[in-house]
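U., I forgot to send this yesterday:
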Amino acid sequence: MCSSGNVLAQDMQNSQHMQHHHATETAAAHGMAPPAFIASTAKPFAGLMDDAMAVMDYGMAQAPMNGKPAHDFITMMMPHHQGAIDMAKAVLLYSDDPEIRNLALGIITEQQNEIKVMQAWLQRHGGAGGQ
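Result:
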């Protein structure tokens, strides 16, 4: 069972998470770009996850689309992959589970490599004019 102190701490963290989530939703609803993601223990884990999602969602919504499936896939996947990197950085700050840390490190490496591949594809296919 949880002690009353642990329950209070969890309630406070949930309240902070909901306040942050509401602020993030409000900014997105007004078309405002969220601040850049910064992985820091100055925020609770849930707040970092909200930040990563806000940046990813905004990036995907702002991706330059031209109606060509390959191009549109690439431009939307780059912020999606960056979101995975940001979430992995967040969990590295808060988890000491070796399996989770190894998974997060692998995600960072692979997603960064895939973003480079996508950027190279866009360059080879004329950026916004890609097929």
